[in-house]
Amino acid sequence: MHDIKMIREDAAGFDAKLARRGVLPLSPELLAIDEERRAALATLQELQARRNAVSKKIGEAKRAKEDTTALEAEGSGIRGEIEALEAEAPRLEALLRDALAKIPNLLDDVVPDGRDESDNKVEKTWGSQRNFAFTPKQHFELGEALGLMDFAGAAKLAGSRFTVLKGALARLERALGQFMLDVHTSEHGYSETVVPLLVNDATMYGTGQLPKFAEDLFATTDGRWLIPTAEVSLTNLAAGEILPAAALPWRLTALTPCFRSEAGSAGRDVRGMLRQHQFTKVELVSITAPEESEAEHERMTRCAETILERLELPYRRVLLCAGDTGFGAAKTYDLEVWVPGQGTYREISSCSNTRAFQARRMNARYRPGEGKPEFVHTLNGSGVAVGRGLIAVLENYQNEDGSIAVPNVLRPYMGGLETITAA
C-alpha cells in the first residue's frame, strides 16, 4: 500500500518508479480521487462548523423569545448536506484505498531493469555440480521406480498437481522440514510458531494476496482462505499493533502446508512435484525498524543459503529484475538449486524486503523511543521449500542403481538410514 501524501509530493517520481514494472502512469487518477475526497472532507468540516454556529444562534434566539423559524430551516438544510457528504466521504475513501491496494510496491534502486527471469542477475554461485558417471534421472522417475512416489494415487484422490509420498520418501520429507526448523530456531534466532492455515479476508489483504491474487487462492465455503504461505499468518501477527522499538526485530518461522491454485500455470511443470496445489514449506518472517531492513534482508537470505550448504546442494543467488519481482516486494533474492535430472537451476527459496508496503495495509507500527508511531518494515523468505528440497536431494544424491544416498545432516532424522532403496 502506498502513502497518498508521498504521491502528492512527487507524482512524477512515483509514476517513473512504477514504469520500471511496466505500469502506466497512475498518479493522475489517484490524485483526482484524492482531491475529490479532500474537498468533500473540507466541505464537511465547513458545514459542521456552520451547523454548530446555527445551533448556537437558535439557542440564543429561543432564550430571547425570538422567532427561530428561519434559523431552523437553515439548520435543516445544512443537516441534509452533511448527511449526503457523510455518505460520500467514506465512498471516496474506499475508492482511493481500493485503487492504492492494486498498485505494486516501488522497487529498490539496485533492482536491475528487465522484463522477465532472463534479465535476472546472478550474484553468486555455490558448490560444485556432481559429475555423474551415468545419465541422471528426474525426481519423479526416481520416486516412482522406488515405489515411494505415487502420482496416480494422488490423482485418484484429488486430481492433478498432488503427490502421495510413502515410506522412506515420506520420512525424508519430514526430516527435511525438521532439520530446517532446528537450524533456524537453534542457530538463526527464529521463534518457531504454529499458525492457522485458514485465515480471513483482512489477513489476506494485509500481506497483499487480496484483492489482486484471489484467483491464485483456495477459498472455503465459510468465507476463509487457505494460506498460500505461512508468511500470511506470521506477518499479520503484527497487524494493528504498535510494537516497542526494543522488541524489534521479530523473527518468526513456521513449517506449514501451503495451498495454491496455480492459476495461469497450465502446461508448466505438469510432471512431478515441482508445482503443486499443496506443498510444505519452512517460512521465515522478520518485522524490523526501517533502518534495519536492508541488513535483515541480507541476513535472512544467508540463513536460507545455510540450509542448502548443509545439505551440500549446489545453488546460486539471483537478484530479481524489475519485471520478475513480486507485487509486494521492493527487492527479492531467489535461491536456485541445481537439479541435475533437468540440467538446470530451479527456485527453492525467495527472500523479499517489502519495506512498509505490507505494514501500511496492516497498520503495523512501532514506537521509536518517545516519538510518534511509525510503520515497521516486513520481510519474508522461504527457509526453504521442503518439497523442492526433496526434489533436489533425490536428483543430486541418486545412485546408478536408482537408490538415494541420504545426506549426512539428515541421517539423524532418518534413524541412521544411509541409503533409500526400493520398497
Quick structural overview:
It is built from 12 helices and 18 strands. It is an alpha+beta fold and 423 residues long.
- C-alpha-based Rg, rounded: 27 Å
Reading side by side through the largest sheet, how are the strands ordered? Answer: 1-11-12-13-16-10-9-4
Instruction: Report the average pLDDT across residues.
Output: 96
Strand content: 15-25%
> Count the strands?
18
CATH architecture type of the largest domain = 2-Layer Sandwich
- CATH fold description of the largest domain: BirA Bifunctional Protein, domain 2
Q: Fraction of residues in helices?
A: 25-40%
Helix count from the secondary structure assignment: 12
Coarse shape:
elongated
Q: CATH superfamily of the largest domain, please?
A: Bira Bifunctional Protein, Domain 2
Give a quick account of the main beta sheet: strands, pairing sense, barrel closure.
Answer: 8 strands, mixed
Unreliable parts: none
Outline the fold blueprint:
Elements: H1 4-9, H2 11-19, H3 27-63, H4 69-101, E1 121-126, H5 139-146, E2 149-150, H6 151-158, E3 164-165, H7 167-186, E4 191-192, E5 198-199, H8 201-206, E6 218-219, E7 225-226, H9 231-235, E8 242-244, E9 250-259, E10 278-288, H10 293-310, E11 315-319, E12 331-339, E13 344-355, H11 357-362, E14 365-367, E15 374-375, E16 377-385, H12 386-396, E17 404-405, E18 419-420
Parallel strand pairs: 4-9, 8-14
Antiparallel strand pairs: 1-11, 2-3, 5-7, 6-7, 9-10, 10-16, 11-12, 12-13, 13-16, 14-15, 17-18
